[in-house]
Amino acid sequence: MSAVDAKAASLGGRLKAGAAAVARRIGLGGIFAKLLLISLSTLAVTFLVYNLVSSQLVGRDMLDRRQGLEGAELRRTITLLETAARDGWSDDSIRSALQLVVPPQMKSILIIERSGRYMQIGQVPLPVSDIRQLIASAGIGRSAEARTETVESDSGTFIVSSQYVPSLNRYVVSLSTGFQREFRRVQNLNALAVGIAIAVSVLVSWGFSRYMTRRIRRMSLGAEQFAKGRFETKIADRSADELGQLAGSLNRMADDLGALEQMRRDFLANVSHDLRSPLTSIHGYVEAILDGTVPQGKADRYLRITQDQTVRLMKLVSDLLDMSQIEAGQFDVVPSEFDLAEMIRLLLSRMESTFRHHSVRYEIDGLPAEVRVVGDPHRLEQVMVNLLQNAMAFSPPGSTVHVTLERGPDSACVTVRDEGIGMSAEQASRIWDRFYKSDEARGGRGGTGIGLSIVKHILDAHGSRIEVRSEPGRGSAFRFCLAWADAAAPDEDSESRTRPEET
Crossing angle, helix 299-328 and helix 242-291, to 10 degrees? Predict the structure, then answer.
């Protein structure tokens, strides 16, 4: 490539880049240009159709009215000629009288004798041959009735009105070109109006497109801020239209994401603390036992503490795995028939040490001997463990956690009620959210904020709805129901209830 070609290519590249930059600056490559192009195209088509339709309609209406006027003027001209014939006017007098009523540049009156000789009043700008051709084209015949025809010729469109007057033994013919001039004037005025309308429409379309693109750009910038984690940013758009509703939805989404992000951070902090505390304890006790710091007689006690901390870690890891499975859509529920009452009795027996550790008692209120329901026993045991641990975590020492199993006509219902701190209606509406922990829980009570979320997901998978009743300072009660294994519940006579148990 020669040096000249290289310079030309470089100049062409710079010009193309400059044009692209200008196009981006004025918005020709974005939605602004598309909106503007659509608006202008719509306006252009609209005005084109309007111009064509209006020209046809207005032209036809003007032609009809002009033909009627020409016929009336022809009749008045004939009346004048008949009067002149009776009174014996000369040709000069007739010519002078007709020139007063005939516009000289728009119409010509021809008075034609049988011999072919004619008198012309007015100055239609046509040669004699064209006038004779127009007369012939109009089909002037020996008729006493007036005729008005529109004749097309190379010179334009003419309105030819004619009538044979027996009293004069002459033809009277009117050649008019006024229609063309009037129609052109109307067309010019119409074109001027259309031009002004297009100019105004272009300005309005430009402004409207700018207005819409500014709103969309604000939403785009706001979405970019949300993507960067700046959820406190708000999109300012108070309009009630669809874009305003979209802006409101994006702002609400940002609020929800901000709350979720805060809960996630709190969750990570809580998990880090919950992992570090038992690991530190386990490490310290094991190291003390191995170093011989712990006396031989107390080793069993510290090993039990280590075991408790290990169980706590296993519970935390299990909840985290369950939450990850829920988010991945891999959380399975395998329903089967089992004895719910027996499952609750065995579970409470296994958790006696946990109740003693929290200095909390449990009481079984009227537990039937057998209650067979349909559900996943492993998952439902997980539900009971979470509810019982939650009740113990928020109960003061010396209080009681009540477990009730009620038999209904279609289902069996379990209630776990504590005598703890309770919660407000706002807190009760949010306890099912992932990572949510109440202010009281932040003070050291409770777990990571995912246990109740897992509970709700398990019960939703069973088609059961969990209910909560709570008041600040008066404890909380959680209740859920499961369908009977049989079509109907067993008869009341066959029930054998145990007496309330305490531990």
Answer: 160
Rounded-to-integer distance, Cα 193 and Cα 494, Å: 96
Residues β-bridged to residue 120: 110
Backbone angles phi, psi at 442, to 5 degrees: -70, -20
What is the rounded CA–CA span in Å between residue 187 and residue 29? 38
Domain 332-502 - what CATH class? alpha beta
- Could you give the C-alpha distances from 198 to 188, 302, 486, in angstroms and in order? 15, 91, 78
| Angle 34-38-44 from CA coordinates, rounded to 5° | 140
pLDDT value, residue 403 = 93
- For residue 22, count CB atoms less than 10 angstroms from its CB and return exposed for 0-12, middle for 13-18, buried for 19 or more: exposed
Q: Which segments within 343-410 are labelled E, that is strand? A: 361-365, 372-375, 400-407
- Measured CA to CA in angstroms, residue 3 lies from 7, 10, 395 at distances of 6, 10, 89
CA distance 113 to 326: 109
pLDDT-above-90 percentage for the chain: 9
**How many whole angstroms separate alpha carbon 480 and alpha carbon 471?**
19
CATH of 242-323, one of 3.50.50.60, 1.10.287.130, 3.10.450.50, 1.10.10.10: 1.10.287.130
Could you report the per-residue pLDDT of 363-376, keeping only the tens digit for each?
888 777 788 999 99
- Phi first, then psi: give them for residue 486, nearest 5 degrees: -95, 175
Whether the Cβ atoms of residue 467 and residue 455 lie closer than 8 Å to each other:
no
- On the question of a common fold for 89-182 and 332-502, the answer reads no
Tell which phi-psi region holds residue 373, choosing left (phi > 0), alpha (psi between -120 and 50) or beta. beta
Buried b (16+ CB within 10 A) or exposed e, 50-76: eeeeeeeeeeeeebeebbebbbebbee
Residue 364 DSSP code: E
* 1: three-class secondary structure by DSSP: coil
Three-state DSSP at 151 gives: strand
Domain ranges of the chain: 89-182, 242-323, 332-502
pLDDT tens readout for residues 267-309: 677 677 667 777 887 888 788 888 877 777 777 777 877 887 7
Amino acid at 157: T
Beta strand pairing call for 156-165 and 170-176: antiparallel
The candidate with the shortest Cα–Cα distance to 319, out of 464, 459, 435, is: 435
Task: Report the pLDDT averaged over residues 67-94.
Answer: 81
Domain 89-182 CATH assignment equals 3.30.450? yes
Residue 75 contacts residue 133 (beta carbons within 8 Å): no
Q: Is the model's pTM score more than 0.70?
A: no
Task: Give the side-chain half-sphere CA count within 13 A for 43.
Answer: 19
